Structure formats: structure tokens, C-alpha cells
Amino acid sequence: MDNHIVLKQLTVSFTTKAGTVKAANRIDAIFPGGQISGIVGETGSGKSVLGLSVLGLLPENRIVSGSILYKNRDLLQLPEPEMNALRGKTIAFVPQNPDTALNPSMTVGAQLSEMFTCHAKASPAEAHLRALEQLRRYALPESQIGFDRYSFQLSGGQRQRLLCAMGNALEPEWLIADEPTKGLDAVLRRQVFQLFQTLRETSNLGILLITHDLRLAERLCDTIFVLYAGTVVEQGPAGELFAGPLHPYTRGLINAQPHKALMPLPGMPPSLIDLPAGCKFGPRCRQRTKLCSQEPPLRNVYGRQVRCWQYD
Ligand code: SF4
Prior knowledge:
By secondary structure, this protein is an alpha/beta fold. Helices cover 32% and strands 24% of the residues. The protein has a single domain, classed as Rossmann fold, CATH 3.40.50.
């Protein structure tokens, strides 16, 4: 349990002019250190909010309760200087969009070197060498020419690898990767998969993989958390969950994939400002019964956690 990240009743909402956005509702989860935990669900299910909560990067208009425990400390209660010290060094982040996350006015080498001079107190010469080594490890052009390139001169896959190289530069214990394959074509998605597979095989890094890419999650993750409307609706070992999904939403997500039945889920996710009463998936569920007008609890079903009255 030493380097697990443990969420206890994590609840996150945002006050907006349109109303209160309930992005995460009483989420309990254990993300084991040294393993890959996948958080999957449609856009707007609250996936990214979990990652940003762990990193303490939620916007100002947040209202947060519950706890996020890591090494006997509640990250939600850490003063900002301590949280700042933790970010990057201990828990690193690979954000969703390389184009906005990378600085177009700095060379690749300068951005990487800065990680070492600012956070590891390396001299400029040492930082230069370590940056070159990172470029090599992440299969980026590691020569001086590659070092002096700008991020906009790299391909989409290279930019994604550069983000991972920066995220892992300080050899953190955890990496939170938010939609690492979003917007990439099949070839680049495969490169990202290989990168994470290598990370898993060559390090003891814990990874929280936030993705709508179910194939990536299935092939990489040890454990899967399926999120719908800010709640966990199913959680379990990746192999079992993909081989036999229990929750109707998980089944729908899997069947909507192009290499499966390609049957789109009916309807749209609910507004997080105006959530339906009872089961949040009810308005889209073909198995809905009268009982579903009440909110189902998360219960243990065949060693998995499932939130559905079908398993009452
Ligand atoms: S609780 Fe009812 S509405 Fe919700 S997923 Fe299960 S069967 Fe469908």
C-alpha cells in the first residue's frame, strides 16, 4: 500500500454561471503503485477531473471533499509549496494536448534541460547531457539537430513522446497520462502503446491512464475503472472486464468499438449540471426496470465492483 494512490469518497464540483457541475461523486478507488490503472468513459464522464484532482491542478471554482491518500498524506490537504514539490518529481503529468502543453518558443532540448536545472538542481552542462539521454530513451532525434528543434517541427507521435520524456525526466513514482492517443492516427497510436508498454516493462512506475481509447486500455492496463456521469459504474481486472463486461454501460462502450459490433451507444451522456434521478445511466439503458429510479450502490459481483440493480 506504500505507494498506492487511494481516493476516498472524492467529490468534485465546479460552480459556474450555468449551475453547479458535479464532475466526480463519492469516488472510492485504489490505484496500486507499479501498475497501470485505466480510467475509461465517454467525454464528460469526469475522467480528467480525477487526474487533475490527484495533481492538485483543479481550477479555482472547484469544490472538493473526500481525500486522496498517498504515502500517509492527504494530497487535498497539502500546502501548495509541498504539492508543487511533489508534482513532476514524484507524480508527473502528461497532459492531453501536446500542442498546448509544449512551449513553441523554446527548443526541445531547452525544454527538457529546464526540467533538470529547475527541479533537479543540475548544472547547465549536466542538464544538457541528461536531456540528450532522455531524447535517446524516448526514441526522439537525440543529436544536436534534434536537440535544437522546436516542438512544432516534430511529428504528432514525436510530440507525444516528448511529453512523456518530459513527464518522466525526474524519474517519478507516478505518471498521470491524460488521453495520450487523442487525435492520433493508427500508426501513432501504436507508437504510444509501445512507449507505455516499454515503460511498464522497464520501470516500476505507477501509471494512471485516462483514456477513451478502449483498445489501448485493454492492452496496457492491469485494472480498469469505468466512469459514467462522475461515478464509477464498474471496476475490475482489465482482462476480466473486457472479456465479460457486467455493467450495461461497459458493454455498450465495448460494443461501440469499430473492431467489435460497432453499435453506437444510444443517447448522450447527461449534463453534469442536471443529473437524472436514480441510475445515471437509466435514460440510455435498455435493461432499465422500475428499480432503476433509485440510485444503485456499487457492489461486489464476481470479484468486481458494479453499480447496477441487475446484480442485486
Ligand atoms: S441500474 Fe438499471 S438503468 Fe442502471 S444500468 Fe443497471 S439496469 Fe440499467
